[in-house]
Amino acid sequence: DAGITQSPRHKVTETGTPVTLRCHQTENHRYMYWYRQDPGHGLRLIHYSYGVKDTDKGEVSDGYSVSRSKTEDFLLTLESATSSQTSVYFCAISATGSGSDKNIQYFGAGTRLSVL
Amino acid sequence: SQQGEEDPQALSIQEGENATMNCSYKTSINNLQWYRQNSGRGLVHLILIRSNEREKHSGRLRVTLDTSKKSSSLLITASRAADTASYFCATDTGRRALTFGSGTRLQVQP
To answer: What is the Cα–Cα distance from A76 to A89, expressed in whole angstroms?
Structure first.
């Protein structure tokens, strides 16, 4: 999975608890992304980062926050988990951003999160 | 609603047959990409076609793009059981990040 490690791979938590998912890359790529994948919805962008400390919201960012203090790490936090956040979460990286013909994304193996 | 919508949602064929998947999108794009996802795994990039290209080949894959109709197709020739996976189109509009469709589930029967 292209030098991308997501942790944990599986997590079960209770409604109302905070949860942090980690994405670690060894490719030194500038761009990092968090998606969620749900049946019938494909992948939906939660947040993305275009550099250290530079992040922006995606289409489904409510209830999520991110941080990127180092090039290699991108953290996704569910501030107070809800059952609607039960999903599979994917991290992706790319060397360039949108508009470039080199904007090919490489994905981690995913984190399966269940909120009970 | 999704920028990219794949059709059909599911496809079942026999080994050796060709598989065709379609993708429609709504806004102008810089490029369109196809990704593959095996069960329980992350997505893997297959092929990218620029907005000024009409057709592109990579091994057994053939991608076409019709910007006037805002549609693309992915053809997998001589399919194999190992091609069983979900296939997603993704559009690059120059804003934010790629926008993915909901995917086509391909089952290739041995």
So the answer is: 9
Q: What pLDDT was estimated at residue B1?
A: 35
Closest Cβ opposite residue B2 in set A1, A42, A56? A42
Is the omega angle on the peptide bond into residue A8 within 30 degrees of 0, that is, cis?
A: yes
Residue pLDDT, tens place only, B52-108? 999 999 999 999 999 999 999 999 999 999 999 999 999 998 877 889 998 999 999
**Taking CA atoms, what residue in A is nearest to B6?**
A42
Burial of B31 (0-12, 13-18, 19+ CB in 10 A): buried
Contact A15, A82 (CB under 8 A): yes
Q: Which two tokens stand for residue A110?
A: 């995913």
Both structure tokens of B10: 């599911």
Measure A65 CA to nearest chain B CA, in Å: 17
User: Going by DSSP bridges, is the β-strand pair B19-24/B5-7 parallel, antiparallel, or unpaired?
Assistant: antiparallel
CB contacts, 8 Å: A98 with chain B: 30, 92-98
Tokens of B108: 């290739």
Whether the Cβ atoms of residue B91 and residue B2 lie closer than 8 Å to each other:
no
Q: B90 and B2 in contact (C-beta within 8 Å)?
A: no
* pLDDT per position as a tens digit, A55-106: 999 999 999 999 999 999 999 999 999 999 999 999 999 987 776 777 899 9
For A35-55, what is each residue's pLDDT tens digit? Answer: 999 987 789 999 999 999 999
Pairwise CA distance, residues A19 & B106, whole Å: 34
